[in-house]
Structure prediction request, 269 residues.
Amino acid sequence: MKVGFLQLRPKFGSVRENVRAAKSLLKDVSEATIVLPELFNTGYLFRAQDELMELSEPVTSGYTVGEMKKIAKRQTLNLIFGIAEKKSRKFYNTAVLVTSKGKLYTYQKTHLFDREKLFFSPGEKSYAVHEVDGVKIGMMVCFDWCFPEVTRVLALKGAEIICHPANLIMPYCLDAMRTRSIENRVFSITANRIGTEKRANMSLTFTGNSQVVDPSGNVLTSAGERSESLKIVEIDIEEAKNKAITTNNHLFKDRKVSLYKPLVRKYVG
Ligand code: ACM
Prediction:
């Protein structure tokens, strides 16, 4: 199967322009699963909640998801991308999966980064795996990388590919994602953005270097940090089904769950 990423340089607040740019860069691709960055349609650095009110969209009736569904259907693509979701007076930093057959799934980012906590609500739904064209897809968003529990839960639920829309500002995340792939024997696709956003007295530079990683931690393809970039590779999904580390070690069967209890207790300091 063909998988890849579209690394972008979104322009803050220009939803239609950003969606058009993605559409244009995707125009020659078909029959693939492609990941786009977090908040690819709005940009990242919201100054205040009224901006989010204006730029966010309901998933089921919003402009962005509507356009992405059309692209997915026309070009036989499965697309995973980040948007600002408006739902029942709350806002979520949401990853959306639209399939070539018209199915729609969402994941609302659970681990909000820094100022995101001022505007977005954390997602509360458990991590879900979606079977698309016989392949099991799990989604996480950017800073979720810092919580290995997310990838682990997805992998235990059967995820074979972790799709990871991101707006990274810490470059070492990409190394961490190689580890997430190794320790779960899953493919991971991190679609990062590039560019600098300057808003009011804030400035953030995003690190690019989007990548596709295999279950042994090999980077199959990656982008630089300067340009928008579409990269697609052929993968063998069977590699993610084999959880043997040696003939005597199974990644999941060897776990010592009775010793892991602190992992599921609330930290009280
Ligand atoms: C991030 O979670 N966007 C750093």
The chain has a mean pLDDT of 97.
